[in-house]
Structure formats: structure tokens, C-alpha cells
Amino acid sequence: MQTLHRPVDQFECNPYLTRKELRNYCKKHNIVPEAWSPLARGACFDDPVLQKALPKSMKKNIAQIILRYDVQKRHRHNSKIHQRSPNPQQFAGF
Q: Fewer CB within 10 Å: N-end or C-end of the chain?
């Protein structure tokens, strides 16, 4: 018996580059989208809008908020995220 796997398309997708059209294409053609660089190669850490939007009471950092959002959002669309970092503290508490 042969196992068939769904194709995966890996592309950059983050708060600055949402790629809605490409994600819709993947969904239509049964392709699993995998978001590469969901933290915008670190650009989101210095973003004053994101920093201001993050309430101090949450006790979370920007990476944790973005990745949690990505996990929840992509779970609904049956997609994946691909994140790596030389700094494991970015993912602490996630």
C-alpha cells in the first residue's frame, strides 16, 4: 500500500508579508503552506507599533505573541510555521 503525501510550499510569511493570495492558492490546490521567517528575520523585535501593542500585563515577548498567533491562525488553515533562531530565549515560555 502506497502512502500519498500532500505537497508543501514553503514561503516567507510574517506580519509584514502576509501572502494572502498565495495562501489562498495553496488552500484551493490542497497544498500545505509552510511559513518561513514568521518573525521577519528579527525586524519585528524593533517595531514600535508591535512593542506598543503588547501589554506589559501579558508578560510575553513579541516573538511569543507572533508565533502563538501564527500557530492558531495556521492551525485553522492546516499549514505550518518554520522558525529557527540562534537564541533559544526567543521561544522560552512558548
A: N
Whole-structure pTM value: 0.62
Give, for all 94 residues of the chain, the pLDDT tens digit. 777 778 888 888 888 888 889 988 988 998 988 878 888 888 888 888 888 877 777 778 888 888 877 777 665 555 555 555 566 665 555 4
| DSSP string computed for 11-75 | EE-BTTB--HHHHHHHHHTT-EEEEE-TTGGGGGGG-HHHHHHS-GGG---HHHHHHHHHHHHHH
- What's the CA gap between 12 and 18, in Å, rounded? 8
CA angle 84, 78, 27 (to 5 degrees): 110
User: Can you give the length of the chain in residues?
Assistant: 94
